[in-house]
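User: Some background: our group keeps a shared notebook of sequences we're curious about, and every so often someone picks one and asks for a predicted structure to add to the entry. Today it's my turn. The entry only has the sequence so far, pasted here. Could you supply the structure so I can complete it?
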Amino acid sequence: MQKSTPSVLIKLFNILLFIIALYVNYLSVVYKIGGKSIRELSDKYDNLFTPSSGTFAIWSIIYLLIVVFLVLQFTQKYAHLPVVRNGYFAISCLLNCAWIICWQFEYLIISLIVMLGLLTTLTIINKQLKEGSSRILKLVFGIYLGWICIATVANATALLVSYDWSFSLQLQAYITIAMLFISVMIVVWVMYQLANPFLSLAVSWALYGIYVKRVGDYSSIANVAMVLAVLVLLGGWWVYRKNKLGLKGE
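Assistant: Of course. Here's the predicted structure to add to the notebook entry:
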């Protein structure tokens, strides 16, 4: 009993910090920490890389999947995994809260640093899940990491926009297309290295959101985003088949 108590406390701590993260998210929407909502700030620093507002509904899926993880951590099959016991998930919750606060007070440089910290933390978690873990946990943290990959690029782009650099619209379009290609190449490489194809689901969704937002004004960006969304899914399928995830786990 004495040996199991610290483990139980860590699991309860994971739940507590996740609830705090949800509460901070709630405050950001209802009370607009800093005076503006996250969506209003996204509009303020709008750029050609930002996906449509409806795309951000993926956060509901991410949080629902995390709830599944928090339940599974109490089962014998998952209790021994590093992600349950080493505190990185708790750190990700704290970074989630910190990013919201920094973003809503428009501390854009600090918000990008925090986002990079969250990206690193989720990468470590996914690396720990690389071998011998079930598809469920790879799905949970793969989708989370995939979305944060794109969110990090969007955060960096918003920071550049805040400096009000006067690029022509044509040059902005070229830069956006280049960023899309670079982002996708990095994501496919990360999927391969982490043996987790589920990043492709969140990334392709984000690219589809860019397509939806840009199809009416920048068809070149929209078309590239749609083609890359398909390529990312194909890359995810290739990683899936390569690692034979369909034959493991549940």
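Suggested note for the entry: The radius of gyration is 19 Å. Residues 246-250 have pLDDT under 50 and may be disordered.
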